[in-house]
Write a structure and sequence with these properties.
244 residues; 7-stranded parallel beta sheet
Length: 244
């Protein structure tokens, strides 16, 4: 990935941090985007080197997304890849208890925010004329739902469909679009949920949850030139959750 400029949203922790670390280790220049500057700075410190910049970005704000891509191009001269990873889960509620503002919050960030990010990145990649690679973070719950997370499942299901449509539309510009489909993943957030990971592992065919670093390696592979014809794919790394 030497010479590639990659933008990673939701880069301040968890899966986004591991994606950034792997891309950095493979030689990419990174633009880290997220809401927490201190979190992004910690990610940058773990990546090491002076090939990283940070841009505080609320992806549900169109102007901030435009500024993010402009920052990448002005600071680093190009943009070759995007990892649209930022998102929220929202509160767990039964259908009859979901407040409209909670529904809108999840949809605005997870679905609309990702749309805005991908649209702005694609605009530049098309103008640049060198192709590109986009990875969108979906979810195994969009394939095998869990009760209580309707807004999140609806948003992630929308992302899965959107990525396939984008792969079709952007293919003529040599821009590949794929969807990462994580299962239950060990992150600082899930580690803090007492007993959750151990219980979740019991329901998985492989008997263990996914490590975030593995997702980072897979995304870096999907972004790279090693798979120039992989597009429109659901990249499942879920210990078999979606087939259980």
């Amino acid at each position: 990935m030497i010479g590639k400029v990659i933008v990673v949203t939701g880069a301040e922790s968890g899966i986004g941090r591991e994606i950034a670390k792997t891309c950095s280790a493979e030689g990419a220049t990174l633009v880290l985007a997220g809401l927490s500057l201190s979190g992004m700075e910690e990610t940058a410190a773990q990546c090491g080197g002076d090939h990283i910049s940070c841009c505080t970005t609320d992806i549900s704000d169109e102007a901030q997304v435009t500024s993010l891509v402009a920052h990448a191009v002005q600071r680093h001269g190009a943009m070759h890849g995007l990892v649209a990873n930022a998102g929220i889960t929202g509160p767990r509620n039964a259908l009859v208890d979901i407040a409209l503002h909670d529904w809108r919050s999840v949809i605005d960030i997870d679905l609309t925010g990702t749309f805005l990010t991908v649209r702005e990145a694609a605009r530049h990649m098309i103008e640049q004329g060198q192709g590109g690679s986009i990875v969108i973070t979906g979810s195994s719950t969009a394939i095998r739902p869990l009760s209580g997370f309707l807004p999140y499942i609806a948003a992630k299901g929308g992302l899965h469909a959107m990525a396939e449509a984008l792969a079709l539309e952007l293919g003529s510009h040599r821009i590949r679009v794929n969807t990462l489909v994580p299962g239950t993943t060990a992150t600082p957030l899930t580690h803090a949920m007492d007993g959750y990971l151990a219980k979740a592992a019991l329901a998985l065919p492989l008997g263990e949850v996914t490590e975030a670093a593995e997702l980072g390696r897979y995304v870096a592979f999907a972004l790279s030139d090693a798979v120039p014809h992989m597009t429109g794919s659901l990249l499942k790394v879920d210990s078999g959750r979606t087939v259980a």
